[in-house]
Design goal:
- The chain is mostly helical.
- Helices cover about 75% and strands about 0% of the residues.
- The protein has a single domain, classed as MFS general substrate transporter like domains (Growth Hormone, Chain: A).
- It is found in: Cell inner membrane.
- GO terms for molecular function: transmembrane transporter activity.
Amino acid sequence: METTTPVKKNSSIIPLVTMTLLFFMWGFITCMNDILIPHLKVQFNLNFQQSMLVQFAFFGAYFIGSLIYFLISYFNGDPVNKVGYKKGIIAGVLLSAVGCCLFYPAATLSIYGVFLAALFVLGLGFTILQITANAYVTLLGPEESASSRLNLTQAFNSFGTTIAPILGGHLIFTLFLEKNGAASADSTRIPYLIFAGILVVLALIISRVKLPSFSSEETVERGLGALKFPQLKLGIFGIFCYVGAEVGIGSLLIAFMEQPDVTNLTEVVSKNYLALYWGGAMIGRFLGAISLSELPQTKKFIYMVLAAAAVYLLVFSIVDLTFAQTSFFIVFIVLNIVAFVIGKSAPARTLVIFAAVNIALLLVSIFSKGSMALYPILGIGLFNSIMFSNIYTLSISGLGKYVSQGSSLLVMAILGGALLPLVQGSIADSLGIQTSFILPALCYLYILIFGLYCAKRGHGAEGGAVRTNH
């Protein structure tokens, strides 16, 4: 049990705002990988599988980092419980800044392996944030509203992923190009030095802000007792599939849009559509935060419509596209709201509906050409929105004293973002990009089955937040 007294609403506002800024930068830098992949593919003359080593290095660090954390916790006790969430978060931010700084020698030496090493260090820093920041947000208020609070901060994480393709694409594809159109070393060197500076400033802000401290009296359970719970075992592979599908789609979107059978767009234009994909996740997470709140059903629907309209206008103002080019997205937003209403705030039921929609959208994209191939795949971001939080809460529901151990195992499953894009890249090389999207479709099929399993056994079958029995 947490030993601290509950955080008062007013006292949690500043910490929550601080965490929101952190989640924004975290999302921004993570999404820069989708810009790096086509850039490095051209710079080092890579095939799709080789270019996917970007995600392999970055998300592989999540697995290695969380495994190390798990082993330290097992033998010496929970490190965050010893040093505190605040110091843990600062350590993660500073390590991420070091990773960004390593892009300087990577770009100067023009060695792909050094880029991958920089991404690995950056991923290690984000692993610490994954372990500390997510848990910290859930503690900043009542347990009943934890899912809503986490969806809200993750929505700002998605705001970062929405802006990254626009701003990051401008920095890498436009601002620092040589006069002959070739990319210069500065196209990655300077942007990542800027990101490092922002992260250091953010670490200083966090160090100055008075954050509530939390500690736990729970003893670390030896062995792997958490794996006796079937929902956790199935949920680990669910996280693996979800992260692998989301990352794989985002990583290949720009290359997909360059295909003559699709839209034959240039990188400068396609980065705007990539922003729509990630912007959809932002819209969906804001809607998820409202859907999981304790508001009456009628008010929920009204607020969801207003929030969707406001965030769509925000995304529209960011991307360099006309209303005619983005109006198709309104159809997917309406479909997303309808799916939330049908889901009735029940995590398992909503997960099943969203997974089914994503499978349908992918199949349309795979077997279509032109706009009919592009539009459905851009709508997938909307239905990815609540998948991580829903799979996570369904997986640890009812674990009791094994919650911490289960959480670390779920973070390790982010390894899917390292392995599955690599497999998808290999399929793209041999069978084509469009055909490669069958892999994420299979991932969503598994997530659908997981949701049905949880609904059948009563895990998250009712509306409201999932209880984790802390």
